Amino acid sequence: MRTTAETYARLVVGAAAARLSLPRYLIESALRRSTGGWSLREQRWWAERLDVVETRLIRIGTNLNQMAAAANTTGELPDVLTGAVRYLQATLDQHREILKAIDPADRSRR
């Protein structure tokens, strides 16, 4: 591919800033949905981080379920537990929507 020295220098600087090789930078730039969109690498990075958050929230949900089971044995359900479960569900729903927007091809989140 031919380019001016100035354009080439801008590409090299952009690739270095993204910590990508120049060919990989060009590929990811071309596949970006819009000028303000995320590169494939950025999408993967965020998807991994959000997967970790979702896993942690699921573990919290498990702990809440254990508290609910303990409350069932006493017959009393604390008001805080009900609110916590609602908050957890709303947060999980929000994270799933974000993950789906980042990687709509991943069917495991449907």
Layout of helices and strands:
Layout lengths: L4 H14 L3 H10 L8 H35 L4 H24 L8
Helix pairs in contact: 1-2, 3-4
Could you characterize the architecture of this molecule?
It contains four helices and no strands. The chain has 110 residues and is mainly alpha-helical. Helix 1 packs across helix 2 and helix 3 runs antiparallel to helix 4.
> Residue ranges: pLDDT <50 for 5 or more in a row?
none
Strand content: under 5%
Helix content class? over 70%
The run of helices and strands is: HHHH
Termini distance?
A: 41 Å
Q: Write down the overall mean pLDDT.
A: 79
Structural class: mainly alpha
Number of helices: 4
Question: What Rg do the Cα atoms give?
Answer: 22 Å
Main pleated sheet: none
- The counted number of beta strands is 0
Task: Write down the overall geometry.
Answer: rod-shaped
Q: What is the oligomeric state here?
A: single chain
For this entry, give a set of tags:
mainly alpha; 110 residues; 4 helices; 75% helix; single chain
Structure summary:
This protein has 110 residues and is mostly helical. 75% of the residues lie in helices and 0% in strands.
